[in-house]
Amino acid sequence: MDFQLSVEQKALRAGIREVLAGRFGRDALRGAVDRPGVDRGLWRELGGAGLFSLCLAEARGGVGLGLAEAVVVFEECGRALLPGPLVATFLAAGEVPGAGSGDTVVTSPYGGLVPWLDAADVVRGDVAGAEPLASVDPLTPLHKLPAAAPVPREAALLYAAEQLGSAGRTLDMAVQHAREREQFGQPVGAFQAVKHLCADMLARVEVARAAVYAAAVTGDPVEAAAAKLLADEAAVQGARDCLQVHGGMGFTWEADVHLHLKRAWLRAELGGSARDAEELLAASL
Amino acid sequence: MDLTYTEEEEAFRARLREWLGRVLPALPPKPSPADWPGRRAYDTGWQRRLYDAGYGDVHWGASPTTRLIFLEETERAGAPYVGANFVGLLHAGPTIATEGSPEQRERWLEPVLRGDEVWCQGFSEPDAGSDLAALRTRARREGDTYVVSGSKIWTSHAEVADWCELLVRTTPVSEATPKHRGITWLALPMDAPGITVRPLRTLAGSTEFAEMFLDDVRIPVANRVGAEDDGWRVTMVTLSFERGTAFVGEVVACRRVLGELAAHARKSGRWDDAVLRRELALLAAEFSALWRLTQWNVSEAQHSASGVPGVGGSVFKLRYSHARQRLYDVAARVAGGASALDAGQEWTLDRLSSLSYTIAAGTSQIQRNIVAERILGLPKSGKGGR
Q1: Do A281 and B262 touch (CB under 8 A)?
Q2: Which chain A residues are closer than 8 Å to B258 by Cβ?
């Protein structure tokens, strides 16, 4: 048993982090808020980097890696707050022409929602009766559906991985702010009330990470349900705490905190209902 | 990311499981918590059986993964916990193994592993709990002897211990000697003249720990582990063992209790209560993740050169101690009504003792400070930084 990232997995994480930092940094993120839409150029670049075809067999033009590697990559997407129907396109690789290469943007209904319906080239699943919704997340257009669609286990886990990345990012933002922002003559991070918020954020991230990675390795549906619940909590509560640490600044449109919180709420829904996950876990006892 | 065990590790697991299956049914019942000498004999007897079967050194001789398997299997089988051997096996032993001289290792380690000698912990004092470095028990040097006076508190197993891992102040606090320096780690023989032990009653009604008064107690300098005035560093080694791995096996036990709660709720009809059912589900998620976090931490320790658990143990302890309290609060709701208030019920006793988990071995507030300052690099709290 060596439950740590392998050398290859660490290299993969560093590689995707570098690509995203270069191609979707802070300016690009704020630009996307002002001009929402799928950036086709970026989509193809991500496809070229193997993001969508990561788990597709090499014989079929993919990278031939497993769910554990996919989780590492999606964690980075969550950190960067990368918009677009990433999960649906990823799961369509090898089945929808052009999905793996990033030439085709694919969306699917998950639960009672479908994201990016108008922007997608291909829709997999029944979206009859879809009605536009004023999405709370400025970076994710949404339609609501009359009936809930099932959420595949892999989709739930990939959303959980994104939640994990977002939780890690809001923790970093909170810690950086707590180190720099001074009040009463010292950094606010010296105050235990602030310190303890940050410590609890880290504890949630670490527990969620162990759960998400383990579920990706074992493929166990009960573990995946647990991972999703813990990652949702880490992302949503992490963003809330990050906002609190930022004080008034956190409540402004200019701070990125609200974008993380809104996306975290969204992913919690798209990745399957908490109720279903809890009932699955209860039934396993 | 690999969660599979090697053939060798699986063989160890199979051997252990087979041995437990053979030995446990013939084990006599555990004496009551009030019967300290009986408990000591029971706990040391169990340690001796482990030793004779080749499992004596599993807490600090074996690889971390082997230890993980040992804890998982013994907890799963319902084998006795370390009990009175807790300090010897999980604190003093690992500390002496890491920091002691060859003679000290020779003198003290084997008797712990054989279940011949029991240790207790003399760290905390009435005015030095979480602020451990504020301790005042004074040791004055007279030739080859330290003469020690002062008092200790929360000393678990003091009544039945042979040795005490004792922290004393060898140099008074001054501008030249901040409070974290000037502390020394000594092995105190509990039969030395001048020691008075007075049991303390816990809120659970038991007498798990005691106050200890030291009046000119003479301890040979040869009993010092580490250098004089270097006891704080030695202690940090001890505490990282305590926070890092001492609670690992209990996660397995909590998962077992969770299964028992579900079975009980199904039988009593309380399973139909969706709120209760889903609360059990959330605890299942938590303990499942804590078990995976344990494996993560153990893998990480295996990669580190020192083998000493890192501060990541604080994250684990923080989450685990609160989850354990939630577990027994939910147990009270599963039991329901009068049963929840019956101090004769095992779940009630466990609920009461779970209250110590967020205090002992560093309160949750101290753990959060450690996580924030040592992992996240936030500034230390100064005066007014509270």
Answers
A1: no
A2: 285
State the pLDDT confidence band at B385, using cuts at 50, 70 and 90.
very low
Comparing CB atoms, the residue among B1, B319, B376 nearest residue A198 is B376
For residue B103, the one-letter residue type is E
pLDDT of residue B301: 78
**Chain A residues touching B373 at Cβ < 8 A:** 195
Mean pLDDT calculated for residue range A207-215? 98
Mean of pLDDT values over A221-246: 98
- 8 A C-beta contact, residue B88 and residue B121: no
Distance CA A119, CA A123 (A): 10
Alpha-carbon distance of B249 to B220, in angstroms, equals 36
The residues with which B119 forms a beta bridge, in sequence order, are B163
Residues of B forming the active site:
242
Residue of chain B nearest A206, judged by CA positions: B293
Residue A92 and residue A250 in contact, taking contact as beta carbons nearer than 8 Å: no
- In this structure, what are the phi and psi dihedrals at residue B307, rounded to the nearest 5 degrees? 75, -5
- Residues in chain A closer than 8 A to B301 (CB atoms): none
Residue A15: φ, ψ to 5°: -65, -50
Q: Looking at CA atoms only, how far is residue B291 from chain A in angstroms?
A: 9
The Cα B156–Cα B83 span in angstroms is 10
Residue linked to tokens 């060859």? B102
- Is pLDDT of A59 > 70? yes
SS (H, E, C) chain A: CECCCCHHHHHHHHHHHHHHHHHCCHHHHHHHHHCCCCCHHHHHHHHHCCCCCCCCCHHHCCCCCCHHHHHHHHHHHHHHCCCCCHHHHHHHCCCCCCCCCCCCCEECCEEEEEECCCCCCEECCCCCCCEEECCCCCCCCEEEEEEEECCCHHHHHHHHHHHHHHHHHHHHHHHHHHHHCEECCEEHHHCHHHHHHHHHHHHHHHHHHHHHHHHHHHCCHHHHHHHHHHHHHHHHHHHHHHHHHHHHHHHCCCCCHHHHHHHHHHHHHHCCCHHHHHHHHHHHC
pLDDT 10s digits, B311-321: 678 899 999 99
Tell me the mean pLDDT in the region A215-226: 97
Note whether A175 contacts B: Cβ–Cβ < 8 A. Answer: yes
Q: Which residues contact B38 (CB under 8 A, 6 or more apart)?
A: B31, B32
pLDDT band at B384 (very low <50, low <70, confident <90, very high): very low
User: What's this model's pTM, rounded to 2 decimal places?
Assistant: 0.94
B244 against B258, higher pLDDT: B258
Mean residue pLDDT across chain A = 97
Residues in chain A: 285
Instruction: Decide if A186 and B384 are in contact by the 8 Å CB cutoff.
Output: yes
Tell me the three state secondary structure of residue B46. helix
Which token pair is B136?
Answer: 């005042």
Residue B61 has pLDDT above 90, yes or no: no
A74-131 pLDDT per residue, tens: 999 999 999 999 999 999 999 999 999 999 999 999 999 999 999 999 999 999 999 9
The mean pLDDT of A122-142, rounded to a whole number, is 97
Cβ distance B245 to B67 under 8 Å? yes
Q: Which two tokens stand for residue B163?
A: 């040795």
Per DSSP bridges, beta strands B119-122 and B163-169 are parallel
Are A281 and B281 a contacting pair at CB < 8 A? yes
What pLDDT is attached to residue B386? 44
Three-class SS state of B362: coil
